[in-house]
């Protein structure tokens, strides 16, 4: 016969009388003992661990009990961690308020009787009873529940039903104020934000519509549209990993504020939620209680930048960021420089004071092109105003602003360089043919079997022009000459030869060297051509291109140049109200400036216009 335990659980009735006896057989050689319901023998006593001990058959008529939680149990008045029991001697073991009495059964089986003792370990039944001598807990619950029902539901309903101009609105009993215009479309759908009753709004509810993560953004936008949002929501991302944010955030100054935060955290109302800073249902002072307060939730600054970043390394020892209590401690710029170009380029942050060089694959001396007395200037004058030149080159000759004015369009060879750097390689039927740009294989295919001729009608040969005297008029000769000194590709590209095979270094020009900053060229004070006349800077005031002979030079100004305007004291920043950390760093998008009030995002305007056209039947 297999080893098994015959369990008998005896429970005393609260009102006296015969006890309740439950019996069952467990056909296992080993049983678990503890407070958790998953155990084979459940002992409902707080002095017993969730999984306290295990007992098993260790031989014929013998049972071994061993503590697995580290807490002892009682055997014959001694506290032990383990024991070997002879079932024939009918031993008794105690776990808290419970007694386990063993007795032999048939064959290799054992009987275990579990009884809860009514002694000093056993709390009096009155502790758990709803009865009381004066005012019972059950009666108290009925009185309080009835009071809430009358005060918050019955009386307001009476006012609504029997008064022509009621001054009490039932929904205002549960809401502290209206929603902002941004969230007003959810006013009748409380569960959109309050997903769990009596639990503060959690970040997961906010990110349902506002998540900026690439894998969640499409779903977030679709959810906002499904809920009836009249505009596209702003997509936001965490400033840093949430666990690091919690560790790096200090308690607010003042004993009262510290206690308040600790109490909120203890009662499941953490202060690091989206809703801790973006407050909804805030009543307006002196205005109609049902009127929306603003276009978006009220922003409350719980922590400013300096409070976390002044002693960041103390709270996050492994961080690579430098403590920045004020502008004077602001770290120097470390631009993101390309160290290995290619289809999978590699980047590295390098300090500006080390004169970093980026490997962008391009040969371009700024000094040569900006020399007002050089050959490039004379060629630009020769091209004339009809071609868009007529004077020495300046920065704006090649660097063109985009539609926003905040940054510049990528350089394109045909548009920005083609007027001076010819790609002509042959004349066919009196018409010049140009090499394709950007793909070496297409260039080689175009040159295959072609003869070449220099373009006519120009006194001065443009850089890159192929001359028939430089090579034989054959495809192979054209191929060799194109990628050799004096050829169309040689002056601007890094060309290497491996036998008869040509290799060009891939070209990749940086669009932003400081991705976690938000420099805006559209700000008049930041300068540009002709801005010095308006009180701003010229390009050359910050970018020393006139002295650069290598395209790998990182031509951005250092922190000292920015400090001429932005290096203000805390008092000056507070007085200006527009020159603090958020001028360049946004909390949710560190690579962008914090949006200013009164300027809705482009997406909002686009959605609003679409809804207006739909409403008009367009």
The global form is elongated
Number of strands: 20
The Rg value, from CA coordinates, equals: 40 Å
Query: For the terminal residues, how far apart are their CA atoms?
Result: 85 Å
* Mean pLDDT score: 79
Spatial strand order of the main sheet: 2-1-12-11-10-7-8
How many individual helices?
A: 18
Structural class: alpha+beta
- Report low-confidence residues grouped into runs of 5 or more: 119-123, 451-462, 464-474, 597-615
Helix content estimate = 10-25%
Strand content: 15-25%
What would you note in describing this structure?
- The protein contains 18 helices and 20 strands.
- By secondary structure, the protein is an alpha+beta fold.
- It has helices at 125-128, 137-162, 203-210, 217-226, 242-248, 255-266, 274-277, 305-309, 312-315, 366-370, 375-383, 413-417, 440-447, 475-482, 539-542, 559-566, 570-576, 602-615, and strands at residues 5-11, 20-26, 30-34, 41-42, 53-59, 62-67, 73-75, 78-80, 82-86, 92-95, 98-104, 110-116, 278-279, 298-299, 336-340, 346-349, 424-428, 431-434, 495-498, 501-504.
- Among the domains are: 5-128, Tumour Suppressor Smad4; 137-171; 175-309, no CATH class; 424-491, no CATH class.
- Mean pLDDT is 79; it is low at 119-123, 451-462, 464-474 and 597-615.
- The strands form six sheets. It has a seven-stranded mixed beta sheet with strand order 2-1-12-11-10-7-8, with no helix packed on it. It has a five-stranded mixed beta sheet with strand order 4-3-5-6-9, with no helix packed on it.
- The radius of gyration is 40 Å and the shape is elongated.
- The protein starts with a strand and ends with a helix.
- A hairpin with a 2-residue loop joins strand 10 and strand 11.
- Helix content is 24%, strand content 15%.
């Amino acid at each position: 016969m297999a080893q098994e335990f015959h369990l008998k659980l005896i429970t005393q009735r609260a009102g006296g009388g015969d006890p309740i006896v439950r019996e069952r057989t467990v056909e296992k050689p080993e049983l678990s003992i503890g407070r958790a319901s998953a155990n084979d023998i459940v002992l409902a006593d707080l002095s017993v661990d969730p999984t306290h001990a295990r007992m098993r058959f260790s031989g014929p008529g013998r049972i071994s009990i061993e503590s697995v939680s580290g807490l002892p149990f009682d055997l014959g008045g001694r506290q032990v961690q383990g024991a070997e029991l002879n079932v024939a001697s009918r031993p008794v073991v105690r776990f808290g308020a419970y007694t386990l009495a063993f007795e032999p059964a048939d064959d290799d089986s054992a009987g275990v009787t579990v009884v809860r003792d009514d002694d000093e370990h056993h709390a009096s039944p009155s502790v758990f009873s709803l009865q009381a001598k004066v005012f019972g807990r059950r009666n108290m619950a009925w009185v309080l529940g009835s009071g809430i029902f009358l005060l918050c539901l019955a009386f307001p309903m009476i006012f609504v039903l029997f008064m022509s101009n009621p001054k009490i609105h039932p929904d205002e009993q549960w809401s502290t104020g209206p929603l902002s215009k941004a969230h007003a479309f959810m006013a009748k759908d409380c569960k959109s934000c309050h997903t769990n009753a009596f639990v503060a709004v959690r970040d997961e509810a906010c990110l349902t519509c506002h998540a900026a993560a690439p894998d969640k953004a499409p779903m977030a936008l679709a959810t906002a549209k499904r809920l009836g949002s009249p505009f596209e929501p702003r997509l936001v991302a965490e400033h840093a990993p949430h666990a690091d944010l919690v560790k790096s955030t200090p308690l607010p100054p003042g004993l009262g504020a510290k206690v308040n935060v600790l109490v909120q955290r203890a009662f499941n109302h953490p202060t690091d939620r989206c809703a801790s800073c973006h407050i909804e249902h805030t009543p307006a002072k002196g205005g109609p209680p049902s009127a929306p307060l603003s276009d978006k939730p009220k922003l409350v600054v719980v922590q400013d930048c300096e409070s976390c970043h002044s002693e960041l390394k103390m709270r996050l020892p492994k961080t690579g960021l430098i403590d920045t209590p004020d502008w004077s401690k602001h770290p120097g710029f470390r631009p993101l420089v390309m160290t290995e170009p290619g289809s999978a380029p590699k980047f590295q942050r390098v300090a500006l004071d080390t004169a970093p060089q980026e490997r962008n694959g391009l040969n371009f001396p700024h000094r040569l092109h900006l020399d007002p007395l050089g050959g490039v200037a004379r060629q630009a004058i020769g091209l004339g105003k009809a071609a868009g030149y007529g004077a020495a080159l300046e920065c704006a000759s090649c660097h063109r602003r985009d539609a926003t004015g905040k940054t510049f369009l990528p350089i394109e060879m045909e548009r920005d360089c083609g007027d001076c750097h010819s790609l002509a390689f042959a004349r066919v039927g009196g018409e010049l043919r140009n090499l394709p740009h950007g793909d070496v294989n297409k260039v080689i295919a175009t040159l295959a079997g072609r003869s070449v001729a220099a373009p006519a009608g120009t006194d001065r040969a443009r850089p890159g022009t192929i001359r028939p005297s430089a090579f034989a008029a054959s495809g192979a000769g054209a191929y060799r000459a194109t990628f050799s000194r004096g050829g169309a590709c040689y002056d601007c590209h890094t060309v290497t030869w491996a036998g008869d095979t040509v290799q060009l270094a891939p070209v990749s020009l940086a669009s932003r060297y400081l991705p976690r900053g938000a420099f805006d060229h559209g700000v008049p004070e930041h300068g540009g051509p002709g801005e010095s006349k308006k009180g701003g800077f010229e390009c050359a005031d910050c970018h020393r291109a006139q002295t650069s002979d290598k395209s790998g030079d990182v031509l951005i100004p250092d922190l000292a140049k920015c400090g001429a305007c932005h290096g203000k004291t805390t008092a000056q920043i507070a007085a200006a109200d527009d020159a603090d950390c958020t001028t360049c760093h946004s909390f949710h998008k560190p690579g962008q400036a914090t949006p200013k009030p009164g300027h809705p995002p482009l997406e909002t305007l686009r959605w609003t216009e679409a809804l207006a056209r739909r409403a008009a039947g367009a």
